[in-house]
Amino acid sequence: MSTWIAIGVTAAGCYLVKLLGLSVPAGALERPLVRRLAALLPVALLAALTAQQTFGDGPHLVLDARAAGLGAAVIALVARAPFLVVVAVAVAVTAGVRAL
């Protein structure tokens, strides 16, 4: 039962945060600092999530096939490969390292 309470509280919190965002005056959203933060914050959060999922296993730091796949994806991105190619390279390298 406590799981459903947590889900309900989380859903209500998300709704309230969205409602709060809609009630912010337009003038506050036009400031250069707010625009820059709105552009950079999702990228930083996604990078943190990727790092945590790649290098974390509970409380431990791990270096395994996922790290090799991420490294290959970074190299593909630097080489300006299309997104699907980047994903395919990461998957192939991760699978290859796991097969070893």
Task: Describe it.
A hairpin with a 2-residue loop joins strand 1 and strand 2. Helix 4 (65-78) packs antiparallel against helix 5 (83-99). The protein has 100 residues and is mainly alpha-helical. It has helices at residues 2-22, 26-29, 32-55, 65-78, 83-99; strands at 56-57, 60-61. Strands 1-2 form a two-stranded antiparallel ribbon. Helices cover 80% and strands 4% of the residues.
Rg on CA atoms, Å: 19 Å
Q: Report the uncertain regions.
A: none
- Mean of residue pLDDT? 93
Order of SSEs, N→C?
HHHEEHH
| Oligomeric assembly | single chain
Strands side by side in the biggest sheet: 1-2
* Biggest β-sheet description: 2 strands, antiparallel
Strands, count = 2
Secondary structure: helix percent: over 70%
H/I helix tally: 5
State the shape: flat
Task: Summarize the entry for a quick read.
By secondary structure, the chain is mainly alpha-helical. It is built from 5 helices and 2 strands; from the N terminus they run αααββαα. It is flat.
Task: Tell me the layout of helices and strands.
Blueprint: H1 2-22, H2 26-29, H3 32-55, E1 56-57, E2 60-61, H4 65-78, H5 83-99
Antiparallel strand pairs: 1-2
Helix pairs in contact: 4-5
Descriptive terms for the model:
single chain; 100 residues; mainly alpha; two-stranded antiparallel ribbon; 5 helices; 2 strands; flat
